[in-house]
Amino acid sequence: MQHTLSILTFQTDGPGLYEVSEHVSEWIAGTGISRGVLNLLCQHTSAGLLITENASAAVHRDLVRWLDAAAPEGPGYEHATEGPDDMPAHVKSMLTGSTLTIPVADGQMMLGTWQGVFIAEHRRDPHTRSLAAHLLGD
Amino acid sequence: MQHTLSILTFQTDGPGLYEVSEHVSEWIAGTGISRGVLNLLCQHTSAGLLITENASAAVHRDLVRWLDAAAPEGPGYEHATEGPDDMPAHVKSMLTGSTLTIPVADGQMMLGTWQGVFIAEHRRDPHTRSLAAHLLGD
Amino acid sequence: MQHTLSILTFQTDGPGLYEVSEHVSEWIAGTGISRGVLNLLCQHTSAGLLITENASAAVHRDLVRWLDAAAPEGPGYEHATEGPDDMPAHVKSMLTGSTLTIPVADGQMMLGTWQGVFIAEHRRDPHTRSLAAHLLGD
User: Which chain C residue has its CA at the smallest distance from A37's CA?
Assistant: First the structure.
């Protein structure tokens, strides 16, 4: 058994879900490990990491709208020094979570047919977002 | 150290929490690995995976009611082609999450006394739900 | 490659976020494993585990207030036998989640600059909270 670590980076450009499945799959292919488990950590507190529907952009827009309604911008936050979209982003990041663990077989993440891995970006400004990735297996 | 992968399947019959702890425990016992870490992925986007209270069905009903109130069915969703319970199910799945990582000792998941592992089913129709399971250890 | 398991315990004293990053880091340092992956499970159903902003106590207060508003105490719960803060705590624990998986390099969790690991305590009374920790690597 072996293991490997890497930092995978992605550009985001405003709130939304950004699918990273293909980029992650290419990284897995390059490691030579075909069977094991992948662990991912989104290294940010105003963006999250989730598995959701991979086929419909309308689903992604509905998820983003739900998060906006659940944690709206407004005067209700004590922490307001980093912009009106900052504290809502921390709430949304708490809700979507920051880490995922995904079994790998035949060199592929064992995702369901309709599943993809997404960075959930919660800030307005463009950001470079990084995932710490650990792959273990043989 | 060794590791093993499997797909565990479960039947659901409408919205609710379905405890899978015993089924998962039996699978662990069959692997011969007694000390390590278990990783689980729910391979669906309209069902989730969570650890919660294992003793009270009232707790489960309250959790389901909370999710229903947080993501109600209704006309407010753009994605509406797969039935009124589909988009709320994607929201609920985002909230409960899809993956869990659980240390294992003495052949048992190291859950707290009151904890169980549950599939959270968010659709009305009966479904076969699958968990990708990876166990590593010795 | 080697792995090790431990139970890490923490005292809480009422609702709030309690940073455990330093305690976890010290445990990692004592294992002699410097590169691999850490898995954590909060062994309770009325407290959670999350990664969030490590610098601002105002962020933590806002997160707690958001959770209080999302799952308020009140007469709306069927499960009410363990006190008014019990069922809201189970909801909050579902939202924050119970497990985390964090890559480790150079003997350190690969957290982002602004990230810390926190126990989210949702009960009023003081509690001893335990994390099951599994570290794998070399």
Answer: C37
Residues B59-79 have pLDDT tens digits of 999 999 999 999 999 999 999
Residue C115 DSSP SS3: strand
Which among A90, A132, A134 has CB closest to C52?
Answer: A90
User: Per-residue pLDDT averaged across B42-47, rounded?
Assistant: 98
What is the average per-residue pLDDT within A48-65?
97
| B17-32: burial string, b at 16+ Cβ within 10 Å, e else | bbebbeebbebbeebe
For A4, nearest residue in chain C (alpha carbons): C36
Q: Partners of C38 in the beta sheet? A: C102, C135
The CATH code that applies to domain B2-74+82-137 is: 2.60.120.460
Kindly state the average pLDDT of the residues C45-70.
97
Radius of gyration of chain B (CA): 16
Q: Given an 8 Å threshold on Cβ–Cβ distance, is C51 in contact with A136? A: no
Q: Is A4 on the interface with C (CB under 8 A)?
A: no
Alpha-carbon distance A121 to C31, whole Å? 35
Q: Mapping DSSP to helix (H, G, I), strand (E, B) and coil, where does residue B42 land?
A: strand
Chains that touch B (3 or more CB pairs under 8 A): A, C
Q: Is CATH 2.60.120.460 correct for C2-137?
A: yes
Residue with tokens 């105002």: C58
* Cα–Cα dist A126/B23, whole Å: 45
How far apart CA B95 and CA B92 sit, in angstroms, is 5
Q: Do C41 and B95 touch (CB under 8 A)?
A: no
- What 3-state DSSP class applies to B40? strand
Q: Is B127 on the interface with A (CB under 8 A)?
A: no
Beta-bridge mates of residue A28: none
A6-49 residue pLDDT tens: 999 999 999 999 999 999 999 999 999 999 999 999 999 999 99
Kindly determine whether residue C66 and residue A134, on different chains, have CB atoms separated by under 8 Å.
Answer: no
Question: Which residues, other chains included, contact A13 with Cβ-Cβ below 8 Å and sequence gap of 6+?
Answer: A126
The pLDDT tens digits of the residues spanning C4-18 come to 999 999 999 999 999
ipTM given for this complex: 0.96
Asked whether the beta carbons of residue A101 and residue B41 sit closer than 8 angstroms, the reply is: yes
User: Which of B56, B70, B102 is nearest residue C79 as measured by Cβ atoms?
Assistant: B56
Q: Does A101 touch chain C (CB under 8 A)?
A: yes
Does the pTM surpass 0.80? The reply is yes
